Amino acid sequence: MPSILTIEDDTATEAGVVPALASAGFTVDVARSGREGIAMVMAGDYDVVALERRLPDIDGLTVVTAMRGVGIETPVLVVSSTTSVEERIEGLRAGCDDYLARPFSIDEMSARLEVLVRRRMRPATTETSLRVGPPELDLVKRKLIRRDKDLRLSPTELRLLEFMMRHAGQVLTRTMIFEGVWGGNYDPATNLVDVHIGRLRNRVDIPGEPSFIRTIRGSGYLLPEEGMPNDRE
């Protein structure tokens, strides 16, 4: 059974959520503070973490930052009563995978957790690199090799470029990119995709040459396959 760590200080919520998740097929452990949650996630091997954003000792995102800082990529579902666009963007940038707004149904929470678990448990691949034209993405060393230069990528840059290289030659909408890279539902009010595309371009583009990633006005973005024109529209 998939294992979940819930980090939740509200005993009433815990009393309702834990039995329901257990009935849905999860093995559930509970941490009642952020610091306890950090210790448990560092010591355990969980398939997914459900995290209350407002904790009594530290901000929930501090837990996520601590996880990502030591390379723990376990998916995180953040539960919050104030899920403004700004807060969701802050959480996604910190390394969260999905957001769930209060009040919520247990069925929705279970469904979101199941999606995150399935994503993590995709069959392992022996593929260690991707190539689109001359540029090569090293998935193990997390770097892009272009013109004999090694560009180290952040985890988000790596996921974004990997997603686009796996879909080279295909016009990708912002919704497709958001769901493929960050998971969850795309909010048209957020510019998160555009911001990260811009940052990635700044990292990988070569001055005086067309952008590595092409903008398709009114549609989204395209990473051209070898031989395709890659002028920005």
UniProtKB/TrEMBL annotation:
Q: Which GO terms describe its molecular function?
A: DNA binding
Q: Which Pfam families match?
A: Response_reg (PF00072), Trans_reg_C (PF00486)
Q: Which residues bind DNA?
A: 127-225
Q: List the PROSITE patterns.
A: OMPR_PHOB, RESPONSE_REGULATORY
Alphabetic keyword roster: DNA-binding
Q: Which SMART domains match?
A: REC (SM00448), Trans_reg_C (SM00862)
Task: Cite the OmpR/PhoB-type domain residue spans from the record.
Answer: 127-225
The segment(s) forming the Response regulatory domain are: 3-117
Q: Where are the transmembrane segments?
A: none
Q: What is this protein called?
A: DNA-binding response OmpR family regulator
Taxonomic classification, please?
Answer: Bacteria, Pseudomonadati, Pseudomonadota, Betaproteobacteria, Burkholderiales
